[in-house]
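To: structure desk
From: M.T.
Subject: fold request, one chain
Message: Could you run this one when you get a chance? Sequence is below, nothing fancy, just the single chain.
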Amino acid sequence: MLKLKPKQRLAVESVNDPTVDTLILFGTVGTGKTDVAAHIVISICQTFPKTYWPVFRQNLTTAKKTVIPSYEVMLERMNLIEGEDFSFNRTDYVIKFKNGSVIAFTEADITKDRQGRKIKGINSSGNHIDEGDELNETMLVTATSRKGRRNEQGQPSLSIHTLNPTDHPYYTALYNSFKFEGEKDESGRIIPPLPKGVRCIEFTVEDSWQTQQDIDALMTNPKWWVERYMNNNWKYKDEEKTIFKSHLFAKARTDKLISGRRTAGYDVADEGRDRAGVADWENFTLFDIQITKEADQKVKTEDQADWLIKHSDDLEIGYENVAVDGVGVGVGLLSSARVKGVDFAVFKSGYSPDPYLTFEDRPLSRDDAERNSEIVSFNNLRSQVAYLLAMGMEKGVVKILESCPYLDDFTSEAQQHHNETNDKVFKLESKDKIKERTGKSPDIFDMVLMGFYKQLKKEHVIAYGGLM
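Reply: Done. Structure tokens follow.
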């Protein structure tokens, strides 16, 4: 049976307020923001015939693991039976009700839909924007505007936004108006009131639907993450122990992918709670992350080798441009691939630093490499590549495609890494220490790191499929 807490109940009641046309649900993770939005949308679709309600997420790959399961769980909690009360086309991601109402899960990805042309033609009753801070400004404006066009049955024209604390300028401005109206901002300007029709509801830990055990587990994340995503301290920037500052990830985001040399990094796991998967790069832009083994799954290394060979062929990456973790179970994948005549590159975190790694198009000379070694020293290859990744993001050389999945995971895992410099040697916290301290392995971070390493390595650039 569905039991709403006070904040969730307030959100539901806001729908019946005719002065509200935009409902912003933001705050602490795990507090049921998406769940209560799903409850609202489903209730409206049940109550008003011929309602058309799109649910927008930047990437459908991510939506399949996040917002769509929330809707499926909510349908069950509301005692609705698939095949009797509704149907769900999992190919087109469309839920249809007996009264002709429709919930359509829709991608809002600027890299796949320039200027939002595909969603401009949507005529809807209202909309739900999940994790709207992921959306490009053009897509956000376009998606939120697609409402009030199928409301003949009296259904509300409402835009619902669900998100966690963010640096996104649109939501930050709303949050500041909600929390600090009339006060002066950092530039001395008076913070204005919320725009007409906008209602904000802030969720805190007290509103969480999670167990205390789950909340305690979340509290083991890095301090900056706990402050922002658990304590709703939107401005917290205590990141002195990591080189991966929050502003780097905002600075690196792009909606452009320029054709060039592709590389990939693959982190291997066959069982246990570690994840396995690949991070794909084109030039110095991270454009995709895929998980091939989720936590608690068991996937043989030979099966992963087959998958990675096909993946490399499909994207025309070139086997020599795919770096695989060469320690532990990674050896099994490399061996399985060699049996099939494929030699992937090997990455070992403990290898000595490589002074020839460069952002330049051509390999460095020996003199340049020696100068590099004199400027910054590293305890191992993993520390070196991580340092160069952060520096590349700071300089604007390294970019992250906005549609790339798992960016929150990558950001969190990167910032979990402490670092120190002793005797002029930069040391990044090891993967084992991260796992020991947080209880989770930074698998996605390592995938990204290995693919980036192959972009930096320029001694042997081999043409493959017309790409360099």
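Reply (cont.): Residues 33-47 form the longest helix (15 residues). Let me know if you need anything else for the meeting.
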